[in-house]
Model the fold of this input.
Amino acid sequence: PEQIEVLAESHADPCLTPAVVTGQDFHGHDALVTLRLLDGSTVTARTFGSGTLSGIDQRVALRVRDQVRVF
Done:
């Protein structure tokens, strides 16, 4: 989850993946955010700090930081 960066939807970059926030689980200094992609699949991202997410059903854009391993 740490490699997925959640951005405001207004970023007009074709390399970003659009998603919708479907859940948030706050842990004080960070939060786990559940996101639904356009194809209906879900991913989880960890956000740090206060962030800019306003809530469920918010449209966002996703970007992968660094390298990701898939098993």
Remarks:
- The chain has no helices and five strands.
